What does this fold into?
Amino acid sequence: MEAYIDERFEEAFVIGDIHGMKKSVEDMLKNWNRDKQQLIFVGDYIDRGPQSADSLLLVRKLQMEYGAICLRGNHEEMFLAFLQNPISKWTLYERNGGLSTVSQLLGESTLTVSQYSRIKLARLLNERYPWLESWLRDLPYFVEFGNFVVVHAGLNLRLDDWRHTSPHDMVWIRQDFHEAANQTGKTIVFGHTPVMNLHNNRSAVHVWQKDDKWGIDGGAVYGGSLLALQMNRQEVKQMFQVKS
It folds into this structure.
């Protein structure tokens, strides 16, 4: 499922993985020109961070009011899977930070939430946020903007046509994408893997670039930075970094 850019925009402002770091997002948005730039988020708005619920609501608000493109991350994928199959999918989601997100959304402690049945949790969330499941289900996997493709995790570069990349790979792929030659003719902007891991340096929290691939998950929730790119349809014009 692909998103489409409003043709009136000649520039885009692409923000990396948030993971509940709402204050960093608010600071980063000061660099965004809402009248001239299409706002794009690469996914992973929730889990692990202190303001996951508020970050999710902020991103949705920006989508509704300013047409922000909100791509699907693996954490949104896990959250959706839990809402659709609470018994079988809760363990994976909880292990990846889901308990804190659900607790924040319900306004209850993690201890209280952990004592509820999985079915009750899903029911309470659907009652409190009747739009949530359909919103998650409709999140697109990628967007093209001129010479760029923006996607959460990456693409299967071993395929003859990158568009045949599976939805699973678009939100989960790592080394097979990072290490493969990019012969797509596109510059690929992605998140998912913290740049510290891509740089092999725990203190390197700046944008990662290699073979027309730009990694912008700055590991904000791990003490790194929230990263963003300002680009036109041909090239990246500026990089932004907000330390968490």
User: Anything to note?
Assistant: The radius of gyration is 17 Å. The chain has a mean pLDDT of 97.
